[in-house]
Amino acid sequence: MTTEPDTSTACGWDQATYRCGRCGAAYTLTEEAYLKAVGVHGDAHAVWDRLNPTERDGFASILRVILASAGLGAEFLVIADRMTHIESGSTS
Ligand SMILES: [Zn+2]
User: Fold this and answer.
1) How far away, in angstroms, is 83 Cα from ligand 1 center?
2) Over the chain (92 residues), what is each successive 10-residue block's mean pLDDT?
3) Residue 18 DSSP SS3
């Protein structure tokens, strides 16, 4: 006698594909991840819309550097605060 888990009572869907009508990006996601991804993707388009082409290039290259290393962005801000403090001549 087998005791396989009964999955027939599950409802809804396990995964769905989100495809953006503006840029064509597609993600296959669970329901929770889907809802989150749709919101984040829309926010990213909002940022894109606010930038001119030069700003987009600069912002993208900065993000490629930051996202290549976990913690790099936070560490850079620590250094920025310390160096600004030092270079401003403060002795405290
Ligand atoms: Zn898109």
Assistant:
1) 38
2) 53 83 92 90 96 97 91 92 89 58
3) strand
Indicate whether this model's pTM tops 0.70: no
Measured in Å, residue 9 CA sits from the centre of ligand 1 at 35
Phi, psi (degrees; rounded to nearest 5) at 60: -65, -40
Residues near 30 by Cβ (< 8 Å), separated by ≥ 6?
14, 15
23 CA from centroid of ligand 1 (Å): 4
Identify whether the C-beta of residue 35 lies closer than 8 Å to the C-beta of residue 16: no
What is the predicted pLDDT for the residue at 3? 53
Q: What residues does the ion ligand 1 have nearby, CB within 5 Å?
A: 20, 22-23, 25
Q: Which two tokens stand for residue 57?
A: 């290039």
